[in-house]
Amino acid sequence: MTLVKSLIYSIQTLRYYEREGLIPAIHRDPNGVRDYQKDELYWIHYVQALRNSGVTVASIKKYVGLVQKGSETREQRKQILLEQRQALLKK
Q1: Is-contact 60 68, C-beta < 8 A?
Q2: What is the model's pTM?
Q3: Each residue of 36-70: pLDDT tens digit?
Q4: CA–CA dist 45, 9 (Å, integer)
């Protein structure tokens, strides 16, 4: 199954992710209609996986912001994920 076929999210969820800054800005066509590209679909899937593993909205926002700043933030992003891993192991 391809990623596109496996992604089924409500409109409300997608707009919430966008509004809260959990995913980068979504490309829009000339009429202003959201036109999800492959990279954006990967982001949506990744954010959903983070949420399913208990990562807070605040942590995801921080993570997305760090990704947008570039590769110099890799260690900070890694730390966020390691902290979440430790929290999951404690459960």
Answers
A1: no
A2: 0.76
A3: 888 888 999 999 988 888 888 999 999 999 998 99
A4: 10
